[in-house]
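Help needed: design a sequence for this.
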């Protein structure tokens, strides 16, 4: 019997939802490992809707659960219905929607608030000593909810121009957490808290390297499950 994993999405599209390649990579690696996956998203309005061709906000209103259903091929549930007791692990792909819809990091940085159902999901898995996997910007959720935890969002300096959001590492440290520098094809395991993180698109890297890095995160999550 494969591990039961919940995957939590934040919409559909890098600029206002979940990063599609990251969500897909996580699903491919989970499938290859024989995991049984169920997908969830909060039933809330998006903070904004971005025209991904122009990179600019529009006047549209969209729902995070409805948009996430595109990635889930319609097979998705409201995050409010997720019961940690029914799963062995939870994984959060990245994308700007994490910082806009799952929390307010995009606006408030380290002073952000975390969506109540996201917070309760993280707390439930952590309390049950079940692993939590996060990639790209998603590790800020753990940094906000679990002070003192260890995460990575890649490097803390913009090495060779590949880590343009390196200042995120400093904000994580200011929250009382330890940022561990890792390359895109690596993940970091906080064994004490069972939190596994990888930087994914926080690094300007070829897609296959991001795919491989997410693979290491998924493997480590499943080892801990």
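Sure. Designed sequence:
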């Amino acid at each position: 019997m494969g591990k039961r994993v919940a995957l939590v999405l934040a919409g559909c599209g890098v600029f206002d939802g979940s990063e599609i390649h990251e969500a897909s990579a996580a699903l491919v690696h989970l499938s290859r490992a024989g995991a049984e996956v169920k997908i969830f998203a909060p039933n809330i309005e998006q903070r904004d809707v971005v025209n991904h061709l122009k990179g600019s906000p529009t006047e549209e209103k969209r729902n995070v659960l409805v948009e996430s259903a595109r990635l889930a091929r319609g097979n998705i549930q409201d995050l409010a219905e997720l019961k940690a007791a029914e799963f062995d692990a939870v994984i959060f792909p990245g994308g700007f929607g994490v910082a806009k819809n799952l929390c307010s990091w995009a606006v408030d940085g380290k002073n952000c608030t975390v969506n109540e159902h996201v917070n309760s999901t993280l707390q439930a898995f952590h309390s049950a000593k079940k692993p939590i996997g996060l990639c790209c910007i998603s590790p800020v959720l753990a940094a906000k909810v679990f002070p003192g935890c260890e995460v990575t969002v890649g490097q803390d300096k913009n090495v060779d121009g590949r880590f343009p959001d390196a200042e995120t590492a400093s904000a994580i440290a200011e929250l009382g957490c330890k940022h561990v520098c890792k390359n895109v094809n690596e993940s970091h395991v906080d064994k004490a808290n069972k939190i596994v993180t990888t930087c994914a698109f926080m690094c300007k890297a070829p897609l296959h390297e991001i795919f491989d890095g997410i693979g290491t995160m998924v493997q480590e999550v499943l080892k801990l499950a």
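Helices lie at 20-32, 64-71, 96-102, 105-108, 116-127, 139-145, 167-174, 207-224.
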